[in-house]
Amino acid sequence: MKDEATITSRELVLEIKDLHKSFGDNHVLNGFNMKLYQGENLVIMGKSGSGKSVMIKCLVGLMEADKGTITVMDNDITKLDQKSLDVLRADIGFLFQGSALYDSMTVRENLEFPLRRHKRAFKNHNNTEKLVVEALKNVGLEHTIDLMPSELSGGMKRRVALARTLILQPKIILYDEPTSGLDPITAKEIIILMQDIQKTYGTSSLIITHDVDCARVISDRMILLIDGVDYAKGTFKELSASNDPKIKAFFKQ
Ligand SMILES: Nc1ncnc2c1ncn2[C@@H]1O[C@H](COP(=O)(O)OP(=O)(O)OP(=O)(O)O)[C@@H](O)[C@H]1O
Ligand SMILES: [Mg+2]
């Protein structure tokens, strides 16, 4: 764990300001703000349906925000043309909620997919085999290269999805519920893997979770998404000691 003051003195890699998103009368995000600094693990917690996935989808341009600015490595993503957005996306790894592997493709084909998609941005694409094997080694699953997703366990799928995210060597990784649906031991393995990745590559990570154990172990800083806004921020220690009932509710076991 890193000291909060050290982190906030670092370079800002991602910033969301005043993000609004509604679906009809359902006002999901009502002015959400966040900053992600170089090399940190920022955890965002919020209860189910609070808008965590919506926020992350706005962030990667899968959903259009109603209002607000999103700056990724000095680029305002709402103002980028498609080509520049694609180049920038190669720097942002996104581990979807669930694992979202392509069921009709082998593990190898799943991992080759982002390399083909980001050919323009990725210079070493000639040696895909080597990259695929290395990425699988990173998650301890090189032996699954020719298997289909249906032949893998839930935890293995999650690790393959993580390998697929890592293959483009992203500067920022967005994790949407990386441990959900996994048993505690497998969840712990995924968390250790995430920590290893951060240490090896110096990646900046935004981790969305409602797993308190995951937040405790991995977070340098945390933001609580409540009522569509960044209701509280601080370290795990600070937030878990809060007397605010809305905050306390998160940390009750
Ligand atoms: N495409 C959509 N169209 C309409 N409503 C949507 C859409 N996507 C999300 N919502 C609504 O936005 C709200 C927030 O959904 P979101 O998926 O962001 O929740 P979440 O915080 O990620 O929850 P969970 O922890 O269960 O994953 C929900 O009320 C949901 O019904
Ligand atoms: Mg979600």
From TrEMBL:
InterPro entries in the record: AAA+_ATPase (IPR003593), ABC_transporter-like_ATP-bd (IPR003439), ABC_transporter-like_CS (IPR017871), P-loop_NTPase (IPR027417)
Keyword rRNA-binding assigned: no
Protein name according to UniProt: ATP-binding cassette domain-containing protein
Keywords annotated in UniProt: Acyltransferase, ATP-binding, Nucleotide-binding, Transferase, Transport
PANTHER family on file: INTERMEMBRANE PHOSPHOLIPID TRANSPORT SYSTEM ATP-BINDING PROTEIN MLAF, PROTEIN TRIGALACTOSYLDIACYLGLYCEROL 3, CHLOROPLASTIC
Record domain ABC transporter: where: 14-252
PROSITE patterns (UniProt xref): ABC_TRANSPORTER_1, ABC_TRANSPORTER_2
This protein's record includes keyword Protein biosynthesis: no
One GO MF term attached to the UniProt entry: ATP hydrolysis activity
